[in-house]
Structures are given as C-alpha cells and as structure tokens.
Write a structure and sequence with these properties.
The chain is α+β, with helices and mostly antiparallel strands and 247 residues long. The chain is built from seven helices and eleven strands. It has one domain: PPM-type phosphatase domain (Phosphatase 2c, domain 1, 4-Layer Sandwich), CATH 3.60.40.10. β7 and β8 form a beta hairpin. α1 runs antiparallel to α2 and α6 crosses α7. The longest helix is centred in the N-terminal third of the chain and has 22 residues.
C-alpha cells in the first residue's frame, strides 16, 4: 500500500512561495496514482500562478484523458499545461514571461515507476545503501558538467546554477524527458524543488531519510535542514513509500 507525504515551505529569504505540489495515492484517470512538484518562475505572483496552473491543468487533463498509456497520458497532459501557461502569459501582461519546472511520477501495480521532468526539479530513489538521482537537470550548469567544462562539485556553487534550459510555458515546442524505474522494498521516492537540493548534499538527504521514523518526520527534517543551511529558496518535498514499509 503506497504511502505519501508532501510539504512546501517558503524558506528563509523569499516573500512568496512559488513551489506547488500534488499527490494522489488513488488513480487519476488511467494513471494508477500521481505525484507532482512544480517550481514556478516569474515576477510578482507570476511564478506562483505558473506552478499552480501547471499542476491543476495536468491533473484535470489526466483525469479525463482517454489514452490508456501512462507515458501518453503524462506527455499529453504536460504539453497541455505548457499551452495553457503560454496562453495565459500572452493574455495578461502581469503574467508575461512566467514558467515552471515540473517533475512527475506514477507507480503501477508491479512497482514500475514512470517519471517525467522538465527543468531542474528532481526525482531521487533512496534506500539504506544509496541515493540515485533519476531525472537529469535541464540547466545551463548541468550542460557545462556534461560537456566537461566544469566538475560536478563546482556546479553547486556556480553563479549561473539557477539558469534553466527548459521550462513549461516558455516555448511552443517542449521536450519532456521520461524514465522508467523498478522500485524495490526499502526504496523511498523523493520529488523536490531545487530549494532543497541547492541547500543539502545528496548524501545528507539520504542520511536524513534513513534517520527518521515516518514520512512526516523525514519530510519535515529535510525542510528544517534546508532552512538551517540558509533556506535561500522555496522548498518542496514529496515523499513516496511504494511498499508502505518505511514507517
């Protein structure tokens, strides 16, 4: 039995929370369940609007989608959200230029997880041995790492680390990355915004998750650690225990 817990926090520096999350342990249309994190960008309240609009559009579209394919449903829903954000951005000057990252996951009865992402919000699979980032950041700094221009350790503190190369609502054509992952007993799935990963090293995330008893304590401890380390951005955390055994 899948168990989940989600939380967002404004952090220590921002005046507005532009992160938005959604979890459903029950089916959403043909999707067996659905977990989403969006991190909005844009001035004033535009980023907040973009992240909420993306998630609400995806949930509504997936709920009514006739495509029985998981990837097909997710891809169509994400592209629909991209179109809606662009339309609203063009119609309202106050929302012009808004966009949002997105990471999405759904897990079938065989514990195969389908993951989709756009931007630099991430999904990890974590157990008592390792933490593995499943998604790939769509960011300027990540491209530099892949090209060998800078080292992985330098990426965390690079001045351009917040420049993302893909986001919903920015361009008419949108590329979405998809991943399939088999989940084993003891695995925990973490979806999060960069407000968490910019403040905490991956191994520290793993240690925090292993050190707390239930999902609520695990999630709250991650947020506390990010804030203790500066809390420079909004923080979004969705934890999913696919087997329900990490109490």
């Amino acid at each position: 039995m899948i168990k989940t817990f989600s939380i967002t926090d404004i952090g220590r520096k921002r005046k507005l929370n532009q992160d938005y999350v959604y979890t459903s342990e029950m089916a959403v249309g043909h999707l067996p369940n659905l977990f989403l994190v969006a991190d909005g960008m844009g001035g004033h309240k535009a980023g907040d609007y973009a992240s909420r609009c993306a998630i609400e559009t995806i949930v509504e579209y997936a709920s009514n989608c006739e495509d029985e394919s998981v990837v097909g449903t997710l891809e169509k829903a994400i592209h629909r959200a991209n179109d809606v954000i662009r339309e609203k951005s063009e119609a309202d000057e106050a929302l012009n230029g808004m966009g949002t990252t997105l990471v999405a996951a759904t897990i079938n009865a065989d514990n195969i997880m389908c993951v989709a992402n756009v931007g630099d919000s991430r999904l990890y699979v974590i157990n008592n041995k390792e933490i593995k980032q499943i998604t790939r950041d769509h960011s300027y700094v990540e491209e530099m790492v892949r090209m060998g221009e800078i080292k992985r350790e330098q990426a965390r503190t690079h001045p351009d680390k917040n420049i993302i190369t893909r986001a919903l609502g920015v361009e008419e054509k949108l590329d979405v990355d998809f991943f399939n992952v088999r989940l084993d007993p003891g695995d925990i799935v973490l979806l999060c915004s960069d407000g968490l990963t910019n403040m905490i090293e991956d191994e520290e995330i793993r240690m925090i998750l292993q050190g707390q008893r239930d999902l609520v304590e695990k999630a709250e401890s991650l947020v506390d650690a990010a804030n203790d380390n500066g809390g420079k951005d909004n923080i979004a955390v969705v934890l999913v225990d696919p087997y329900g055994d990490n109490r």
